[in-house]
Amino acid sequence: MKLNQRVVDKIIKEALREDLGEKGDLTTQAIFSKPIRAEAEIISKSSGVVCGLAVAEKVFKILDSKVTVTFSVNEGSEIEEDQIIAKVKGPLQAILGAERTALNFMQHLSGISTLTRKFINEVKSYPVQIFDTRKTTPGLKMLEKYAVKVGGGFNHRFGLFDAVLIKDNHVRAAGGITAAIREARSSFASGITIEVEAENLEEVAEALEAEADIILLDNMELETLKKAVKLVDTRAVTEASGGITLKNVADVARTGVDRISVGALTQADLPLDLSLEIISVQ
To answer: Going by CATH, does the domain composed of 5-120+269-281 fall within 3.40.50.12780?
Structure first.
């Protein structure tokens, strides 16, 4: 997934504006009235998968183009506690002004990549893919889905505009799965992939009869999932969703589903602990 730099810059500028306000960094301005050059290190305080390096660099660059950031790790690398991730050089005022915003982006995105990698490691013995969902932070969807990709996961539809996913409310309003799929098919000439949510085996059978391409097996018990996968028997792609955790994801993968979507990837991440420390001034 390639980031749209124009959108990223807009997100960063808004984040800096939120932190600096109209007056800027009052503390740094009060203490350092004259220009000072400094060198700093970004250090990991916990282990995990690092993500958001280019975003963090752009935070410093947008605040002051004279700041340089040199990374000692690559995007998606697994890092250890107390590892130096980057060296930052430039005007002290800019480094301190951008510090928290840059770290916030990196910590949040690295947390998502780290959790994604954990899920993938839990199911590495099975031919299943881990997907995210639309449960993202408003305004940060692109970055959060990017972090899932960096962690090794797959992106579900980006938004309502790029895929057809018939959920329970659509089914109720349309009068059933068959009717919903029929109307969706009639709205597109050809080539559209239709996914439909099923909550029990009866709905799975109806979705198969209506020729759904992907069947989302929603909040099913393990035994029901196994029966659903057997019933589908490669006639559609199967996706398990709902209540998936690190503790049960391997059990879900063992049922034979093709993919597993996990809302927690972008919701329940624990930010990777990072810090920036000034190591010299001139």
So the answer is: no
Q: Which amino acids are annotated catalytic?
A: 100, 135, 167, 197, 218
* Burial track 221-259 (b if 16+ CB lie within 10 A, e otherwise): eeebbeebbeebeeebbbbbbeebeeeebbebbebbbbb
For the chain, the domains span 5-120+269-281, 125-267
pLDDT at 268 over 80: no
Sequential DSSP letters for 82-96: T-EEEEEEEEHHHHH
Q: What is the mean pLDDT of the chain?
A: 96
Mean pLDDT of 216-226: 97
Residues 91-118: what's their mean pLDDT? 97
Stated pTM of the model: 0.95
pLDDT of 269 above 90: no
The CATH architecture one would assign to domain 125-267 is Alpha-Beta Barrel (3.20)
Check: CB of residue 66 under 8 Å from CB of residue 15. no
Tell me the β-bridge partners of 61: none
